[in-house]
Amino acid sequence: KTFLVEIGTEELPPKSLRTLAESFAANFIQQLDNANLEHGEVLWYASPRRLALKVLNLNDTQPDSQIVKRGPAVSAAFDANGNATKAAEGWARGCGITVDQAERIQTDKGEWLSYTQNQKGQPVVNLLCDMVKTALSKLPIPKPMRWAARQVEFIRPCHTVTMLYGNELVPGTILEIKSDRIIRGHRFMGEQEFTIDNADQYPEILEQRGKVIADYDKRKSIIKQQAEEEAAKLNGKADLTDNLLEEVSSLVEWPVVLTAKFEERFLEVPAESLVYTMKGDQKYFPVYDKQGKLLPNFIFVANIESKDPQVVISGNEKVVRPRLADAEFFYQTDLKQRLEDRLPRLETVLFQQQLGTVKDKAIRIESLSGFIADKIGADVEQAKRAGKLTKCDLVTNTVFEFPETQGIMGRYLALKDGESIEVATAIEEQYKPRFAGDELPSTAISCAVSIAEKLDTLAGIFGIGQHPKGDKDPFALRRAAIGVLRIIVEEALSLDLVELANYAASLYGGKLTNKNVVDDIVNFMQGRFRAWYQEQGFAIDTIQAVLALNPTKPADFDARIKAVTHFRTLPEASSLAEANKRVSNILSKVEVTIPEQINAALLEAGPEGELAKKLVILTDKLSPYFSESRYQDALIELSSLKETVNAFFDSVMVMVDNEDIRLNRLALLKKLQNLFLKVADISLL
């Protein structure tokens, strides 16, 4: 039959409603599996005032089982006269048998006493209450609460518990509330309370009589569809981000989607401020026209069917108006002062106690942006100008009220001040990429400023020994490192991490206490490389083969990784990797200095002479390949050595008694190894 459990509560936290419901279902499935109960699909339901599960085709009886209880080893169960020891008698007594009735089992560790107990399966209704209790006790609740005079704790006060197996009420007490057939409906519509006769009636009876849509995904789908329809009536498109959709779906039990408007004069305020107000404070959906411009309308979701929807609409318009007016006031006030004139105020904002103020940081970013711009061929003066102004919007009224607009507000104010579009864009894009998959800065100047902003933080925090530990990374150094690497790699910028870290650290003067700051930054970023490329699906030994050379230019690192990955698809790859391993093993055991030049007079005709000849030709041919980072082409050329190398090892003894010939052959192998090491350590594949 179908089993239903519903826990009726006060309003649950909307941002964690889905997580609670899914965890409840997963925990209960675990309990069913532990009890060996066969069942069909487990469905979960969640609304602001309830968590519920419905288990289809749940067996009415637990299957019989056998429990094997192993006792002491036979050697410890009997004394020298063959009499049972106290340990054996105590174990047998616990099993309800005598020692004579015990079985014996043979294992690889000897013979043991054993007893197989047949356990009859219990009726499922006797098990369900405890299973629900256990499933609820394991919910991810960071701050449980108590209510009334009860000692029990839960995420919110609980008022009803309903457990039905088919049409049978499952007895039991959960959270100090007895199981009952009573279910509560919507606060303001439908029946406030009603009884449910059969588990199969849920959730339809709740929707029909209680005016509550318990199906979370159904509510979300209704909101999304109706919001899109409302936006289409305005010839626009609603901003239906999934996070906000989820939150709104968790706030209502009977969604009714309505459209309202605000005065067009507010559109003179930066759209981002209005959007953050509507989405963040009010949980409204902004509407954009087909050109992406904000419309003076918003879509909201009510939790009630009103006889006069216009009253609800007017109420929401009245609520949002003062908030938009605040945004307008902040912006108008901010316009009265130039962005550059705010720089002195940054002296009052601390970046980090040991590292100084945000103004100090802005001055460092200015210098570092110019340094990077010069390296990548961007406009140095524009980059320095943008770097200097990067943090000035942090002391504006708008950013103080809406922290999410930092950078964005800087762009608006920079343009109002007459700064170039490149400078304004760089101020906004200094924080990109903000997260995995985010867009990169759009111009070379923006790239320089973004790298500088992140690198300054890395240099400062590593410079005072505040390295990330475990999952603790308060300054988001991992994200900053990945951001720098992404920009350099994806934009193919010729930048060296050691050079960048040295310059960034030098700008702090004597403030840094960690003498190994440059090495720490480079090692940390190379560690991010490993994780980043693994996530992209590159083989770990491919990454290690490149890391073995310790390349410090990210774009160069990327070219090597892709070259080695392509090399592995060639038929010669496996054989050459083995040959490189052999060469590496031979050379690692040599304790004398190997000559740099090969003595042609000591070469034997045949495979040895052929290998030497090919290495001379390839050394000359591949020199421009390596200087131009054409590593893939270089490895393709090197793959032609397969037959020659195999023939050499098949017929030539390297470690001969004649020292001159031995050293000459070692020099030959060293030259072979060095050609491959121009790309990666192939011996690690």
From TrEMBL:
Catalyses which reaction(s): tRNA(Gly) + glycine + ATP = glycyl-tRNA(Gly) + AMP + diphosphate
DALR anticodon binding domain location: 578-676
Principal subcellular localisation of the protein: cytoplasm
Transmembrane residue ranges: none
EC number: 6.1.1.14
Catalytic class of the enzyme: ligase
Keywords: Aminoacyl-tRNA synthetase, ATP-binding, Cytoplasm, Ligase, Nucleotide-binding, Protein biosynthesis
Biological process terms in GO annotation: arginyl-tRNA aminoacylation; glycyl-tRNA aminoacylation
Family as reported in the entry's similarity comment: Belongs to the class-II aminoacyl-tRNA synthetase family.
Designated name of the protein: Glycine--tRNA ligase beta subunit
Gene transcribed to yield this protein: glyS
